[in-house]
Automatic annotation (TrEMBL):
The protein's role, per its UniProt record: ATP-dependent carboxylate-amine ligase which exhibits weak glutamate--cysteine ligase activity.
Pfam family, one: GCS2
UniProt keyword annotation of Ligase present: yes
UniProt-listed Enzyme Commission number(s): 6.3.2.2
Enzyme superclass (EC): ligase
Protein's organism: Streptomyces spinosisporus
Keywords: ATP-binding, Ligase, Nucleotide-binding
Domain of life (superkingdom): Bacteria
Protein's name according to its UniProt entry: Putative glutamate--cysteine ligase 2
GO MF annotation terms: ligase activity
């Protein structure tokens, strides 16, 4: 069974006011003090963010346990220096992002200007094991139409600089400002994938392969496909749902490749429209169906994803968990819907942040 790992980016916020705090260096120092040599928590582009990465897991219950544990540890380390963590893909409150120090970050600030200054957004990246680069690229070519559905399930960034954006995932709109971000045309082979990446680096527009921000890519560090479309999810259970569906998509795509089935030939233009539609209203409106690229109710498109991955999910004993998780999201609401509901109830974006910080720790 393929292993899965999850990376989550969290906001560091004041536990009383909800305002983002530039304390990542201090939180990381505290984590290192408590556990010398720890490799769970890492710094991110901005001082208001903290990232953690789970170990690869084959069992989704084990992955869930580890995500919950990492979130609680992050909150504990942050609490020891006077802040807390919130699984929010954008800050509801106005914020002035603080870029980290170092040659890489300085280069990005100079190269990308205001686009780099406004990238304080938090994502969830899912790593799914593959057997080779050839299998990985075959997977990338075949999962392209389905990634927008994962995005719709994870939407958790409706607010930006103190205002409702009218998007459920404004993070994804901000992220598209990077010149290397977004969907890709089919690569066809590992050789063509690596040539494309090398050409992008050689252009000088990006510094290195780490700045190739495809919606899904081959990982530089691990033998995995890295799926990067999701907002960081308000609840750990949603992150697990995205991870198990990502594994289902990868396994389904690998089986299609081995069976000689060609990938769908949807253009990047249509894939961008599908991604935009998912970001605009998440599960609370229509989505583009991955097979036809025509509008359908969100629940019908989610059902299509479950059908598409059904055999793989059954074989990994994840199908019932996936069905229950999707039904709960459709009924109870995504992170974006919950944030808006909290604002309606409290009238305060500060209360939204502090309530979401509590959700993050539970």
């Amino acid at each position: 069974m393929r292993t899965v790992g999850v990376e989550e980016e969290l906001l560091l916020v004041d536990p009383e006011t909800g305002e983002p705090k530039v304390l990542s260096t201090a939180v990381l120092a505290r984590a290192e003090q408590d556990d010398p040599g720890q490799e769970v928590f890492e710094k991110e582009l901005y001082g208001q963010m903290l990232e953690f990465a789970t170990h690869p897991q084959a069992d989704m219950a084990d992955l869930s346990t580890e995500i919950v544990r990492c979130r609680k540890e992050a909150a504990r380390h942050a609490g020891e220096i006077g802040c807390t963590v919130a699984a929010l893909a954008s800050s509801p409150l106005p914020v002035s992002p603080s870029l980290g120090r170092g040659r890489r970050y300085e280069w990005m600030a100079e190269q990308f200007g205001i686009a780099a200054q406004e990238q304080l957004v938090c994502g969830c990246h899912v790593h799914v094991a593959v057997e080779s680069d050839e299998e990985g690229v075959a997977v990338l070519d075949r999962i392209r139409p389905w990634l927008s559905v994962l995005s719709a399930l994870s939407v958790n960034s409706p607010f930006w600089q103190g205002k409702d954006t009218c998007y459920d995932s404004y993070r994804s709109q901000v992220w598209q400002r990077w010149p290397s971000a977004g969907p890709t045309e089919p690569f066809g082979s590992a050789e063509r994938y690596h040539r494309r990446v090398a050409d992008m680096v050689a252009s000088g527009v990006i510094l290195d392969e780490g700045m190739v921000y495809f919606d899904a890519r081959l990982s530089q560090r691990y033998p995995t496909v890295e799926i990067r479309v999701a907002d960081v999810c308000l609840h750990a259970s949603t992150a697990v749902l995205v991870a198990l569906l990502a594994r289902g998509l990868v396994e389904t795509a690998a089986r299609e490749w081995r069976a000689g089935r060609e990938p769908a030939d949807h253009s990047v233009n249509l894939l961008r429209m599908a991604a935009w539609r998912a970001a605009r209203s998440g599960l609370d409106g229509e989505l583009l169906h991955p097979a036809t690229m025509r509008r359908m109710p969100a629940d019908s498109v989610v059902a299509a994803l479950l059908e598409h991955t059904g055999q793989a999910l059954t074989d990994s004993d994840d199908l019932e968990r996936a069905r229950v998780g999707c039904a709960q999201l459709l009924d109870d609401g995504t992170g974006a819907r919950i944030q808006r509901r909290l604002l309606e109830q409290t009238g305060s974006l500060r209360e939204v942040v502090t309530a979401c910080a509590r959700h993050t720790r539970t």
